[in-house]
Amino acid sequence: MDEAPQRPSEARERGGARVLVIGGGARNHAIAEALRRSPSVAEVVLAPGTSGLERRGYPTAPVATQDLPGLVEHALLEGYDLSVVGPNTPLVDGIVDRFEAEGLPIFGPTRAAARLEGSKSFARLLMSRLGIPTPRFAICDDAHRAMHMARTQRWARVFKVDGIAYERGVRVTHELAEAEQALQDILVDNIYGLESERIVVEERIDGVEFTLFALTDGEHVEPMGHVLNHPRLCVGDTGPPSRGMGQVAPAPPLDEAMYRSLVDRVLIPTVRAMAEADTPLRGALFVDLMLCRGEPYAIDYNVRFGDPATQTLLHAWSGDLYRALQACRGQGDLASAVAAMHHDPRPRVSVVVVCEGYPHRRVRGAPIALDESVFDADPDLALYEDGVRVLDGDLLTTGGRTFTVVAAGDTVAEARARAYRGIAAIRYRGAYHRPDIGVGRGTA
């Protein structure tokens, strides 16, 4: 078990920084873990965190991620040296603007820059203007026009709500009847309770999905790696879309030449364009792409740490992440801060465990049997907690995603075998994971 939480005065006595990580779950667990390894950091606090993370020695603050005034008040009271935002909704709602207005140091993009993720139509138009390859698309402001597109354009088979909606706001269809039903569900019946009527209609392309990760100070871009995605719930990338069921890093389909080309053709022009529009993007930049018939197409931007890419990629980095995040704010040189960190180039495989009913319904309260000795005994195996709570000393599921297991190895096969040994140490009623992460298309 990790060391007990420290009081602010104790953390200050160590001479290091105090950092607030806004959010809970596996992604924020990985961010907090990487920051706690940073030599500049004395203490990491999560808000709201989870009771599962509390038992791992992380102090938490009972402030919800959507409570922006409460988070500002808490940060003012505690005087953190840096706050790091995990989820996208607070960024789109302007949490960075609010913190900066109070003189509070925070890592992440402003509300204006967060439009890159918060509005799919804005992102698509920017990609088109920059000449970044992306599937054909049209922007529709009402159900009638979207339905007309589906009926008259055979390529129009992917439908994305303009705002933040996670997997609920994306429907990938094949036939016209399926497309019509998707639009009826999303726009007419609004079965997901979404606010936006604007929808981006896209061409459906098939291929291998991967993600690029970089840090940026609004001017410079420091690439931090890439991962191969397994985005759908079921074996063979079938079933409904999820936030990702597992990954392989580095992404096997990308050689060094293609990777550097994508940095030059996608990441750098995007950051430059945002700066030229007087909305500089400072923070993390994740770009989802698809390799279709050997050609990469940009699919989406994320302007925060992605899930589960953060767990997969940060597992390979050690050193002073705190210094690098501060450099994204202009406090130091970003290139020097990243160069001072150490990257382990060995392959990583991550596997996500979810509850029965995911992603459409939440089945809560299943007792979890977790053999933590498996993880304690292997330094190349990590466990990040998501939807887990502690009640009377017992671990229980809270529905949805429960754990991400990440493993390193000298080969993908070795990392994969190690990851599934970790998966075998997690047992609860209704637990589900994909058994094919790291095998099949795109991994050879």
Structural class: alpha+beta
Mean pLDDT: 93
Q: Strand content of the residues, in percent?
A: 25-35%
The number of distinct helices, counting runs of at least 4 residues, comes to 16
Radius of gyration: 21 Å
How would you describe the shape?
globular
How many E strands?
A: 24
Helix content: 25-40%
The major sheet is characterized as: 8 strands, antiparallel
- Broad CATH class of the domain at 19-110: Alpha Beta
Spatially, the strands of the biggest sheet line up as: 15-14-9-10-13-18-23-20
Q: Please give the alpha-carbon distance between the first and last residues.
A: 38 Å
Describe this structure in words.
With 444 residues, the chain is an alpha+beta fold. Among the domains are: 19-110, Rossmann fold; 136-203, ATP-grasp fold, A domain (Dna Ligase, domain 1). It is built from 16 helices and 24 strands. The chain has helices at 8-13, 25-36, 51-54, 68-78, 88-92, 95-101, 111-118, 120-130, 143-152, 176-188, 256-276, 309-314, 321-328, 334-339, 373-376, 412-424, and strands spanning 17-23, 41-48, 82-85, 106-107, 137-140, 156-161, 170-172, 199-203, 208-217, 221-229, 232-234, 238-241, 246-249, 282-292, 295-302, 317-318, 342-343, 348-354, 369-370, 381-385, 388-391, 394-397, 401-408, 426-427. It has an eight-stranded antiparallel β-sheet. A hairpin with a 3-residue loop joins β9 (208-217) and β10 (221-229). The two termini are 38 Å apart. Residues 1-9 have low confidence and may be disordered.
